[in-house]
Amino acid sequence: MRVVIVGAGILGSSVAYHLSLNRDVAITVIDEAHQGKATLAGAGIVCPWATKVTDPDFYRFYAAGGAYYRPLVSALKEKGETEFGYRQVGALVLADTDEQLQEIEARVLPRVANVPEAGEVRRVGAAEIKAMFPPLRDGLSALYIPGGARVEARGLAGAMMRAAQANGAQLHQGHANITAEGSRAIVKLDGKVIDADLVVVTAGAWVNQTLTNIGASIGVVPQRGQIVHLRVKEETIDWPVLLPQGSHYMLAFDDNRVVVGATRENGVGFDCRLTAGGQAEVLNFGLALAPGLADATHIETRVGIRPMAESVKPLIGHLSGFENILIGNGLGAGGLTMGPLAGKLLSQVALGQTPDLDLTPYAVRSL
Ligand code: FAD
What we know:
Elements: E1 2-6, H1 10-20, E2 26-31, H2 38-41, E3 45-46, H3 56-78, E4 91-95, H4 98-112, E5 122-124, H5 126-132, E6 141-145, E7 149-150, H6 153-166, E8 170-173, E9 176-181, E10 184-189, E11 192-194, E12 198-201, H7 207-211, E13 220-231, E14 241-243, E15 249-253, E16 257-261, E17 265-266, H8 276-289, E18 297-309, E19 315-318, E20 325-329, H9 335-350
Parallel strand pairs: 1-2, 1-12, 2-8, 4-14, 12-20
Antiparallel strand pairs: 3-7, 4-6, 5-6, 9-10, 10-11, 13-16, 13-17, 13-18, 15-16, 19-20
Helix pairs in contact: 1-6, 1-9, 3-9
The structure holds flavin-adenine dinucleotide.
C-alpha cells in the first residue's frame, strides 16, 4: 500500500512512525513547515489528569494519550531515539485557598484512582512546593501528580520521523496540493503526482485550506498561542510542571530553561506575530506566580497556531465523500499529549485494523 501523509507535526510524524512498523507500506510525507506550526511552539506538558475539560469522550482520548507515552518512549529508545526531553518531573496543580485545593482533589482524585501512570498523588504544602520550584511565590498549596511529564515536542516529532525514515519513509518539504478525480484524492508536490492508495491529511490548523480544492472542510479553527522561554541560573532538570488556576502554566527543561505559557487567542486567524498584549499577558502571569523569575533572561517567544475542533474532541477517521482520504486533526491545546496515540490509531485505521480506542465519538464530519 502507498500512503501519502500531508503534514508532519506531532500527528503526521506519529502516523508515519506507526505505519512504518509495517514493512508493506510505502510512505511519503509532505510537510510545508508553515510559520506557526503548532508542534514547534507547544509547551510539552503531558499530564491529562488535571484537565478542567469534562467532556467524557475528550477525556478518554486525552488520558489514553498520556498513558501511551511510556510504551512509546521505550519503543523509541530501542531504536536509539532518546533526545526529546521526555521526563516524568511530576506536576503541581496549584491552589491559593483550601477551597480551591478541595475542588482540585474532587476533580483529579477519582481520575487517578487505579491509574498507575499518575503515581501516588498527594497534597504538598508551601515549603515543599518552594523546594521543588524555587522561584515560586509563597503561600501556595498543591496536589502533586508524580506521573506528570514534559517533552520537547519538536524533538519527539523529529525522533518519530527519523525512525520512520530509517524504515524507508520518504520526507519532502513543500506544499501538498490535493485535488480529486471523482471520489479519489490526487496529491501533487511541485506539480508532480505522488501515487497514493491512501492520503492521510494531518495538516493541523491549515486543514481547510488543504481541502479547499476538493470542496471539503471540517470543523476546525485556528487559535494563536504565544509562549515565552526564559533562562535561569538554577539547575532546572527536576522542576515540576506547574498547573495553576486558569489556563496559564509553567514548566522547565534541562538547559536552565523555564517556559511560561500561553495565550489562547481566537479570531486572529493565521497571524503569527508576537504582540505586546500577548507578551504582557504571559509575563505578567509568570512573574506574579514566580517572582523569582524577574531576573531571568528572555530567550525567545514562540508562536503556534493550535488546530481547535469546534466539537472540542479530536477528529480521527475517513473524510466522507472520498474513498481514500483519512483525517487526523482537532488536537487543540492537548495535541502533544494526544498526538502520538492519535497517530497510532490513524495508522490502525489505514491498515484496516481495529483501533485500540473506539473512534466513533471522534468521527470526521465534512461541512
Ligand atoms: P501542526 O504541528 O501544526 O502540524 C501541521 C503540519 O502540517 C505543519 O507542519 C504544516 O506546515 C503542515 N501542512 C499543512 N498544510 C499542508 C499542506 N497542504 N502540504 C504540506 N504540509 C502541510 N499540547 C499538549 O498536549 N501539551 C502542551 O503543553 C501544549 N502546549 C501548547 C502550547 C502552545 C503555545 C501551542 C500553540 C500548542 C500547545 N499544545 C500543547 C498543542 C499542540 O502543540 C498541538 O495540538 C499539536 O502540536 C498539533 O499538532 P498537529 O500535528 O495536528 O499540527
